[in-house]
Amino acid sequence: MPSPDLPRDSRWTDATPRLDPSHPIAQAIDAFNRAVFHTISFAGVEVELIVLWMFLPMVFLTVRFGFINVRGFGLAVRILRGDFRSDRAPGDVTQAQALSTALSGTVGLGNIAGVAVAISLGGPGAAFWMLCIGALAMTLKFTECTLGVKYRRVHEDGSISGGPMYYLQAGLERRGWPRFGAILAWTYAVCAIPSMLQVAQVNQAYSQLSRVTGVDGLGWRWGFGIVLALAVGFVILGGIRSIARVTSRLVPVMAGVYLGAALVVLGTHATEVPRAVQVIVGDALAPGAGVGAVIGAFVWGMRRAVYSTEAGIGSATMAHAAAKTWEPVSEGLVALLEPFIDTVVICSATALVIVVTGAHTQGDVSDIQMTSSAFNAVLPGFDAVLALAVLLFAYSTIVSWAYYASKVWTFVFGDSAFSVTVYRIVFCCALVPGAVLTTGQVFDIMDSLFFLMAVPNVLGLYLMAGEVRRDLSSYLERVRTREVPSRRARP
């Protein structure tokens, strides 16, 4: 996601440049942030309403669609490996490449630092709730990506545009609500454009790299920002096909290296893994801890899982909309694998590593330092590998969000050659100062706009849930009766 996946009150240090709190602009920004991230107290634990707004449809849609996240998992894997592939289907990339692009936008510091945050503030039990909510998020991702393909726009040159802007407008117009659909679509787009600028990712990448290498200074910061901007620009010039080629190679390598290191750590603590699982599950459910403690673990697990999966934000639908398929539901099924990989698998691996090494019991570490400490306990010098992983995670996230931002930009400003060129220049130039200066209020307002994207998107998903359910039933029936051809091109 575009901002650091850390508690809002711990992301900015005293050295972080900020506007004077008494400045009218600073006061306006703070008031806006308080409205967006308004919290309520539940059993003594503060939880943001926007997080609940993204969590509740996960439960509702999972029940409404008959737990498609579970019963559709096997079919999703078959689709991903190409059992129903049609090379003649409209789209820019394969379904596997679309998934890789979407994953590159979500797999990142949320899987490394976010888990540690959840455990440090909610106890080991928070990791259990992250897993559960990640599983529920699979259904939400299925819903929005099905609609993303169904209402995508195929241009004269064969290129594809899709995302919440299109399915909110076209889908609600189809239901007889054209004005309401247009309001939701444009609200989403207006919030999305500034929030998709990836300044924070550049800042995080440089921070981790500098911490390991010890290299710092204004010149180094400007140089890093310029080099990264050029590297991103080189890839996004080629459009979604170029982005998909990069992410389809980069994401498996990133995930493989990280999970490989996790398996090494767990392998050296093999006898302690069952105990770690018992601690995580027991801490999540143990009645002896008190209702407040259990709810606290649940809330922190929910927060971090919602932030990690980005289900409900609608961003991933722009990547999935480009997939080659005749069947919107098939891409929705592929998309449900995204939270499974991102949260259920990778976040769970991080949690197990932290618990088996006892890093969560060290009171002087938190955030990414806790994860780093856990790996270093078994793999000395893993800081360097982690810094590289953070750099690659940041780069792949920036590349993916460059594509998402381009779709929002062209929706608002048109897809002329001039408009696209202006967008690429703006996006890449905005990356450069990310390593040089971090202004707290700027990131805060970008965060607020980012999560506001979920408001129109989720509302649209509720309204079109019945339509998706009918499409799902039709597709599953046609797969059962073999009307959907398997392993051969559609005639």
Give structural notes.
This protein has 491 residues and is mainly alpha-helical. It has helices at 24-36, 49-64, 68-71, 73-80, 95-106, 109-122, 125-150, 164-174, 178-195, 199-213, 218-236, 239-268, 273-285, 291-309, 317-320, 328-335, 337-356, 367-376, 382-413, 417-431, 440-452, 454-463, 465-480, and strands at residues 39-42, 45-48, 153-154, 160-161. A two-stranded antiparallel sheet has the order 1-2. Strands 3-4 form a two-stranded antiparallel ribbon. Strand 1 (39-42) and strand 2 form a beta hairpin. Helix 6 (109-122) packs antiparallel against helix 14 (291-309). The longest helix has 32 residues, at 382-413. The chain is globular and about 55 Å long. It starts with 23 loop residues before the first helix and ends in an 11-residue tail after the last helix. 53% of the residues are buried.
Describe the secondary structure blueprint for this structure.
Layout: H1 24-36, E1 39-42, E2 45-48, H2 49-64, H3 68-71, H4 73-80, H5 95-106, H6 109-122, H7 125-150, E3 153-154, E4 160-161, H8 164-174, H9 178-195, H10 199-213, H11 218-236, H12 239-268, H13 273-285, H14 291-309, H15 317-320, H16 328-335, H17 337-356, H18 367-376, H19 382-413, H20 417-431, H21 440-452, H22 454-463, H23 465-480
Antiparallel strand pairs: 1-2, 3-4
Helix pairs in contact: 1-21, 2-7, 2-22, 4-16, 5-12, 5-17, 5-19, 6-7, 6-14, 6-17, 6-18, 7-8, 7-13, 7-14, 7-16, 7-17, 8-9, 8-22, 9-19, 9-21, 9-22, 10-19, 11-19, 11-20, 12-17, 12-19, 17-18, 19-20
